[in-house]
Structure formats: C-alpha cells, structure tokens
UniProtKB/TrEMBL annotation:
Enzyme Commission number(s): 4.2.2.29
Gene, per the UniProt record: mltG
Source organism: Solibacillus palustris
Family according to the record: Belongs to the transglycosylase MltG family.
Keywords, sorted A to Z: Cell membrane, Cell wall biogenesis/degradation, Lyase, Membrane, Transmembrane, Transmembrane helix
Function of the molecule: Functions as a peptidoglycan terminase that cleaves nascent peptidoglycan strands endolytically to terminate their elongation.
InterPro entries from the UniProt entry: MLTG-like (IPR003770)
Signal peptide region: none
Catalytic activity: a peptidoglycan chain = a peptidoglycan chain with N-acetyl-1,6-anhydromuramyl-[peptide] at the reducing end + a peptidoglycan chain with N-acetylglucosamine at the non-reducing end
TM spans (from-to): 21-41
Name of the featured protein: Endolytic murein transglycosylase
Length: 363
C-alpha cells in the first residue's frame, strides 16, 4: 500500500511539473505574442518612411467609408496597416472624410493624413517656416533666405539673376512672367515677383530652386485672381506689380492705399511725374532715412522725379492689400499727399494746398 502511495505521489509531482512547464511555455508564448503585437501596432502608428518627401497621388472616391479609405491608403503605401488605421480613427472618433485627389507622402503621420482627409487639402506639420515681409527687395529677401536656410544670400542672388533659370521660370509661369521682365533698364527680372508671405517647408534643407519656386507659385496664384480685371483695364501684369510695389513702399501703418493709388493714377493721366521717394532710394541702391534734394536729381530710369510714368519694373514685393488697392483706387482729384510724423496721410488737390500741409504737419 505504501509502495503504491509513493508511486502515485511521484506521478502527481511529474504531472504538476509538466503542467507547470506547459503553463510557463504558454505564458512565454503569450508574452512574445503580446510584445510582437505591441511592436507591430506601434510601428503601424508611425510614418511608413519619415525621410520620404516623394508625393504619391491618392484618389478617394465619393461615398468611400473608412474601411475602403484605409484599404486605398495601404495599397498606395501611405500607411502600414489598413486595420490599424481604421481602428485608430475610430478610437479618436474621427469621421467626415472628404473625397478627392490628394498628393500624400510616406513621411506623413496618421494625424496629418486624417487632417488632410477631413479638410480636403494636404495637411502636414512643417519642419520650419520662413516669413518674407511685404515691401522687401530681392536683395533683402536674399538675406531672409540666408537666415532661414543653408543657402547664402549671394547664391540666392546668383540664382534669381541667372538667365537660364529666368527663362525656365518664364516657361513654367507664362501668365506671370512675360517678356516685360526682360526689357531694357529692368534691374532684376524677378524683382517684385516673389510673393511676401509666411511659407511652410516640409523638409529640413529645401533646394534653392524649391524656395524660389514656392514664392513665384504663390504670386502666380494671387495674380491669376485678377486676370479678367487686368484685361478690362488693359494693364499688363508687369505694370500691375510695378504700381502695387510703389503703393507698398509708400505705405505706413495708417496709410490709405486706395487714395494714394488715386493720386498716382491722377498724375499719370496728366503726364505728371509720380515723384515717389522709394523709387529714388531704389535708383540709388541704398536705404536712407531722409531723401535729399540732390538725390531727387539722380539720373536713373527708376527715379520717378525725373521720369514720367511708372519705373521700368517693381521696386519691391507687394502684399495683397497693395495689390488690391492698385485695382480699386478711390475716386479723387488729389495730386499730392504726405505722411505726418504719426504716419497719417494728408492729401491735396493743388500744390498750394500741399505746401500748406507741409507747413502744418511737418514743421
């Protein structure tokens, strides 16, 4: 009896040992599976290729649900796993995705992809932004580019004045860059054609061509809004941006640009020189706090004190306000204006009135 009991005891121990081993193996398998699943899910939530900026065209058809959208994105290689993307959007309670054509990249996060599909436009967090203020010349923009990118101001100026590059841009933006920019006496062909704005860049070190094209493309978009009205006014794009640049440079914080525009138009109608100081400074090629009488006599095509009409080309990059004021001047009989020490403009119809304003507001 004792012998049998001893044998049973040994069998129980063996069974327990086997069960323990099986249990341990199961736990290890579960742990490995869990760890692998965790790694897989974590990886699936990350961009497919953080370094890729290659654009992939994706079409989301009308009526597409999250399941079909997820499948399309996976097939195009924008996301790693359709199911993970689907459950991620449900977890975040995201919906109302818009149909359309998108240019997406493998470096976009799931949140950026979701935001793009919700807004109907490609949305990405920029690596950096670069602000080009209104009223800057090409040489001043070159300094902005140098401060924000790896490209020197000298290299920027070399590129924007390169004849082959200019001709290439004329081919790419034929409605914006016409033969007018190549006319005699135009200092820089692309002066005034790089739109002032805050630009997002999605790669750490964009090429110089990408930087320049981004600004040209923005100006092309802006100008295209006014194609019809320019045709009605029989005004060329070059004249348009040249006029707008004068308004931009004359502007102060409190400037009434539409009224200043009326002064310039009124003068041009009677062949009266525009006599705007910023053109003198541009002719001199240097900034001065005060324009002297001797400066007004400088012989240069851009000097509107000695030349009638618009200068050969823009003298700076005009913003939207100046661009719109160019096409929507106030109806006035004014021929003169001046800004007082606070920046408020005072207008006059005659030279005597203008002299009185000088005496009243500047002395």
């Amino acid at each position: 009896m004792f012998k049998k009991m001893k044998e049973r005891k040994g069998e129980v121990k063996t069974v327990r040992k086997i069960v323990g081993i099986i249990a341990l193996v199961v736990l290890i398998v579960i742990a490995i599976a869990g760890y692998s699943s965790y790694n897989y899910i974590t990886s699936a939530l990350e961009p497919v290729d953080p370094e890729s900026n290659k654009k992939i065209e994706v079409e989301i058809p009308m009526g597409s649900g999250i399941t079909s959208i997820s499948s399309i994105l996976e097939q195009k290689g924008i996301i790693k796993d359709a199911s993970i993307f689907k459950y991620y959007t449900k977890f975040k309670n995201e919906s109302d995705f818009q149909a359309g054509n998108y240019s997406l990249t493998q470096s976009m996060t799931l949140d950026e992809i979701i935001e793009s599909l919700k807004t109907g436009r490609v949305y990405r967090e920029p690596v950096f932004t670069m602000t080009v203020p209104e009223g800057l010349t090409l040489e001043q923009i070159a300094n902005v580019v140098e401060k924000n990118t790896s490209h020197s101001a000298e290299k920027f100026m070399e590129r924007v004045t390169n004849q082959s590059f200019i001709e290439q841009m004329m081919t790419e933006y034929p409605e914006l860059l016409t033969e007018d920019i190549l006319k005699e006496n135009v200092r820089y062909a692309l002066e005034g054609y790089l739109y002032p704005a805050t630009y997002p860049f999605f790669e750490k070190d964009p090429t110089l061509d990408d930087v320049i094209k981004t600004m040209l493309s923005s100006m092309n978009t802006i100008v295209s809004e006014y194609t019809t009205i320019l045709a009605e006014k029989e005004m060329s794009v070059h004249e348009f941006l040249t006029f707008a640049s004068l308004l931009e440079e004359e502007a102060t914080a409190q400037t009434d640009r539409e009224t200043i525009a009326s002064v310039f138009y009124n003068r041009m109608k009677i062949d009266m020189p525009l006599q705007t100081d910023p053109t003198v400074l541009y002719a001199l090629g240097s900034h001065k706090d005060r324009v002297l009488y001797e400066d007004l006599e400088v012989k240069n095509p851009y000097n509107t004190y000695v030349n009638v009409g618009l200068p050969p080309g823009p003298i700076a990059g005009a913003g939207k306000t100046s661009i719109e004021a160019t096409l929507n001047p106030t109806e006035t009989d004014y021929l003169y204006f001046l800004a007082d020490k606070e920046g408020t403009n005072h207008f006059a119809k005659s030279y005597d009135e203008h002299l009185a304003n000088i005496e009243k507001y500047l002395r």
